[in-house]
């Protein structure tokens, strides 16, 4: 998902003022220019929940803000665009957000929200969520001591731009570059040693027990358990000109502006990349399993390091990968030809066991990949879904219902698919939320956003009502957007 984090706040604000001034001064002609079709152009379709649609000719390097402003005036003022069930960041590009040519984006007029959950794991199953509202405020629920109660920092949770979760705490990034942390003391709560350095922050990342922040100067500030990446002081000379940070459960990896990579944390679980340092060049993207990392290079090749049992060993690499994701112990890469290249623990998605899934993944019609702790799900070009991993191949009636899917969220051991009609279908382990669907939960209708935690899922309806369910069924979280 694109974040736009590589642009500092002052530049973003200036750019935003510029965009709005163009539209204000040129009116509909400016919008028409942005949307004007051209031969061979990249295009997306903007769709309101009312059914109204418009096709917009644009570029994969256009920002989400530009695309929003290209909609016709009768759409109303679009506050957010959603790819499936996830809000696209305004100042990221369509390419960074992995938006495909011809994709349908949901246009939200009015309320728009983000959902964030604790790190997904089977060892410490916290089900806390943070809801980031369109007005920059935050609401939380779940395990009170593990991030579900933010009441004692509520006065500081204003102007929030993003929230990330460790296994038992949350960190929120404010628009002024400040950071607010709440949750369990053992999971990155205490920032005392890093507090003076937490200024002008533009991105946050988390492992299971630590956080890392990227400053506008391209430096990194880390805090929490040192064994989980909470101490980066020994890497300060290398952690410069950083543009992105990614966290596994045990370590962090940072991509620098020159495409090189720096890692720290548990050295046997991804925190040491020296064995592949010479290969980590021109890196454009990094994915994490629980204890390993996989880097996608600009030439489409892949590099892995960390625990071999968690996908950290890659003997052969394709040359045409365009995206890579991690489960708890495996990785899967989406190739340019629409096929999938998985590796790692076979029971966690390193291989598709059943013949039907194998055949589907070889057809070359995979549009997007999604992951949970125990495996992966592929969204096909025809709107159907193929899952693989530990008990993740949809069967019978559930498989028949997986039509018209636009997004898939994962808990640790289940998936929930958001369909284009706003309904939800889930499958996998019922102890991890697979029991919830629009057929069994009446409130699961007109869903706009959906996210998974370790043992359950949360979804936001068009009217702002939040629906939450886990292994015991639907739970009233008493939160609205």
Give a structural overview:
The chain is mainly beta and 481 residues long. Among the domains are: 9-108, Ubiquitin-like (UB roll) (Roll); 111-162 and 179-187, no CATH class; 394-481, no CATH class. It is 10% helix and 36% strand. It has helices spanning 9-26, 28-35, 64-69, 355-362, 396-401; strands at residues 42-47, 53-58, 80-83, 86-87, 104-108, 114-117, 129-132, 138-141, 160-165, 169-174, 179-183, 201-206, 210-215, 220-224, 242-247, 251-256, 261-265, 283-288, 292-297, 302-306, 321-326, 330-335, 340-344, 366-372, 375-380, 385-389, 405-410, 414-419, 424-428, 447-452, 457-461, 466-470, 473-475. It has a 5-stranded mixed sheet. Strands 30-31-32-33 form a 4-stranded antiparallel sheet, with no helix packed on it. A 3-stranded antiparallel sheet has the order 6-7-8, with no helix packed on it. The radius of gyration is 21 Å and the shape is globular.
